[in-house]
Amino acid sequence: MLIGYARTSTLEQEAGLEAQIRDLRALGCEKLFQEQASSVGPRKELDAALGIVRAGDTLVVTKLDRLARSVTHLGAILADLEAKGVALRIENLGVDTSTTTGKLVLTVLGGVAQFEREMMLERQREGIAKAKAEGAYKGRKPTARAKADEIKALAAEGLSMGAIATRLGIGKGSVHRALAAQKEG
Prior knowledge:
By secondary structure, the protein is α/β, with parallel strands linked by helices. The chain folds into two domains: 2-116, Rossmann fold (3-Layer(aba) Sandwich); 143-184. 56% of the residues lie in helices and 12% in strands. The chain has eight helices and five strands, in the order βαβαβαββααααα. The chain has helices spanning 14-26, 44-52, 71-84, 100-133, 143-146, 148-156, 161-168, 172-184, and strands spanning 2-8, 31-36, 58-61, 87-90, 95-96. The chain has a five-stranded mixed β-sheet with strand order 2-1-3-4-5, sandwiched between helices. Helix 3 (71-84) links the parallel strand 3 and strand 4. Helix 6 packs across helix 8. The longest helix is centred in the middle third of the chain and has 34 residues, at 100-133. The protein is elongated. It starts with a strand and ends with a helix.
């Protein structure tokens, strides 16, 4: 049985999700799992798809980046599928792990994809460091620290941390840190 999995990271990528679903149906997937979830967050539909696959099935995705977060994650998914006797097919790459060559190609491509992502992150860090050095990048403003006096005053009035956070539009953790800093100082 062909089982399809489609994912986009955000709700704004609705057209991308629809295209994946259309392609997976055209490929003959009998069951489809779809979700809009960040690659780093929990992916319940991927877990569900991995949970139902059985020996002889093939898990189908349109692109590698829709499936795995990293080479390590890809390796874990492949090990799980292989242990169950399930193949993985990545349509845009023409890769099918039911063949030895497909397994090799997928491993190499996964390594290249992770390398590319790490290089992108390195360039991003370098760009931010350069912008900071030039005074063009200061990060986000420390809103909670700027409201430390208000936090202390509201706490002195007897308001709870939750009430202070709501009134000032900041997180409860920020209120806690500001009050802890007051006690230390």
